[in-house]
């Protein structure tokens, strides 16, 4: 039995991790932290877990976590990096759901996250946890940087085109929408239902911290830098990300849809839909799945639509998928279920 701890168990991704881990046959949750709710029974905060877990929230301490085989950090950016070196030294492996270990360049991290990196020496070792492209390295990793939610949807939707060299890497547009849970479980005026409901807006048009993460991913597969215009939007729903991706085709002899179909044919958590499809976020609600549709318009523009649940394939589900790989478990263990909506 694998013993795991969750730092940040009261947040949206931490509680989603708990939901998924409690359905995993090979895992025991040994520690769940919250500073604000320390001492409270986890099931008193989350009645949906009643009868499934007898733990109470504890403070995040090295002593409390170092006995675990694996610790998930579901905490704000800049939190994990302060504890990870000590946990690794104690022999505990780590999956960070935040951005601390995603960017390889510490200067870029400091620029986008507004603070110096606490352990830049670990950035090279950290493995970017997108299994569809990094499976073997994840298996051997001590430290996995779980991808961001927008980067997951966009990267899965663009890499097959870049790998095959069939689009212009200098002109790519990612028009992406997220549900409100993407912003985390914090009290903020702009996230109130009366502010978000019946409204729809773009944000981060001057530059969003996920743009460098996505471009880092795409550059690896294009084998050169790419030029990406990325605009996130907030939509009045709780869960889900929908990305509409535009690129110019440079080769008429390759069928984009066929590239995706063959690239993801063996992937348990990517579904390439038939031509002419328009995937909906509700079709992936609550499951670890990215659904993709690939269509073309006259003039040589390929339009890829990619949908995920930001809390599952965009965070906790992908973290579980990475855990399965790191510990030699069946990659799909604890992750096979049907979406909440038809
Ligand atoms: N929401 C989403 O869709 C996605 C989020 N992420 C990333 O995952 C991480 C968690 O996100 P989310 O669940 O939304 O966040 P929330 O704001 O919902 O929860 C944050 C959690 O972290 C704990 N926490 C906060 N500060 C600290 C600290 N200094 N030390 C230890 N624990 C702390 C909080 O509990 P307490 O303060 O009581 O200790 C709380 O449990 C973030 O980095 C986010 O960017 C990634 C992909 C998708
Ligand atoms: C809707 C919303 O606010 N989304 C968040 C991104 C989601 C997230 O949690 O960011 P990471 O994946 O990097 O951790 C934002 O734009 O800041």
Automatic annotation (TrEMBL):
Native species: Thioalkalicoccus limnaeus
Pathway assigned in UniProt: Amino-acid biosynthesis; L-arginine biosynthesis; N(2)-acetyl-L-ornithine from L-glutamate: step 3/4
Keyword annotations of the record: Amino-acid biosynthesis, Arginine biosynthesis, Cytoplasm, NADP, Oxidoreductase
Broadest EC class assigned to this enzyme: oxidoreductase
Main location: cytoplasm
Role according to the record: Catalyzes the NADPH-dependent reduction of N-acetyl-5-glutamyl phosphate to yield N-acetyl-L-glutamate 5-semialdehyde.
Recorded catalytic activity of this chain's protein: N-acetyl-L-glutamate 5-semialdehyde + phosphate + NADP(+) = N-acetyl-L-glutamyl 5-phosphate + NADPH + H(+)
NCBIfam families hit by this protein: argC (TIGR01850)
PANTHER family the UniProt entry points to: N-ACETYL-GAMMA-GLUTAMYL-PHOSPHATE REDUCTASE, CHLOROPLASTIC-RELATED (PTHR32338:SF10), N-ACETYL-GAMMA-GLUTAMYL-PHOSPHATE REDUCTASE, CHLOROPLASTIC-RELATED-RELATED (PTHR32338)
SUPFAM superfamilies given in the database record: Glyceraldehyde-3-phosphate dehydrogenase-like, C-terminal domain, NAD(P)-binding Rossmann-fold domains
Family stated for the protein in its record: Belongs to the NAGSA dehydrogenase family. Type 1 subfamily.
Protein name: N-acetyl-gamma-glutamyl-phosphate reductase
Ranges for domain Semialdehyde dehydrogenase NAD-binding: 3-141
List of catalytic residues: 149
PROSITE patterns, per the entry: ARGC
MF (Gene Ontology): N-acetyl-gamma-glutamyl-phosphate reductase activity
EC number: 1.2.1.38
Compartments, as annotated in UniProt: Cytoplasm
Source taxon at top rank: Bacteria
Pfam families hit by this protein: Semialdhyde_dh, Semialdhyde_dhC_1
């Amino acid at each position: 039995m694998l013993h795991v701890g969750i730092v940040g168990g009261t947040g949206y991704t931490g509680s989603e991790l708990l939901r998924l881990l409690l359905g995993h046959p090979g895992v025991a949750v040994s520690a769940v932290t919250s500073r604000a709710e320390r001492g409270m029974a986890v099931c008193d905060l989350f009645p949906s877990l009643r009868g499934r877990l007898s733990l109470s929230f504890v403070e995040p301490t090295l002593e409390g976590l170092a006995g675990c085989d694996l610790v998930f950090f579901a905490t704000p950016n800049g939190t994990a990096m302060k504890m990870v070196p000590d946990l690794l030294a104690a022999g505990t492996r780590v999956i960070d759901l935040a951005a601390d270990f995603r960017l390889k360049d510490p200067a870029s991290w400091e620029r986008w996250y507004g603070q110096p990196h606490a352990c830049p020496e670990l950035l090279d070792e950290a493995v970017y946890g997108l299994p569809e492209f990094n499976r073997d390295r994840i298996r051997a990793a001590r430290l996995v940087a779980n991808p961001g939610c927008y980067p997951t949807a966009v990267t899965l939707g663009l890499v097959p085109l870049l790998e095959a060299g069939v689009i212009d890497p200098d002109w790519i547009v990612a028009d992406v929408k997220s549900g409100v849970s993407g912003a985390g479980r914090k009290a903020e005026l702009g996230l109130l239902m009366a502010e978000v409901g019946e409204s729809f807006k773009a944000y981060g048009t001057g530059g969003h911290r996920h743009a460098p993460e996505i471009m880092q991913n795409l550059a690896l597969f294009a084998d050169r830098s790419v030029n990406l215009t990325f605009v996130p939007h907030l939509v009045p729903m709780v869960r889900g990300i929908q990305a509409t991706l535009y690129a110019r085709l440079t080769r008429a002899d390759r069928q984009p849809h066929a590239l995706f179909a063959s690239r993801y044919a063996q992937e348990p958590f990517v579904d390439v839909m038939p031509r002419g499809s328009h995937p909906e976020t509700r079709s992936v609600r609550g499951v670890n799945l990215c659904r993709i549709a690939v269509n073309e318009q006259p003039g040589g523009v390929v339009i890829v639509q990619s949908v995920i649940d930001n809390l599952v394939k965009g965070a906790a589900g992908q973290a579980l998928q990475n855990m399965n790989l790191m510990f030699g478990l069946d990659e799909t263990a604890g992750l096979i279920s049907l979406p909440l909506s038809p």
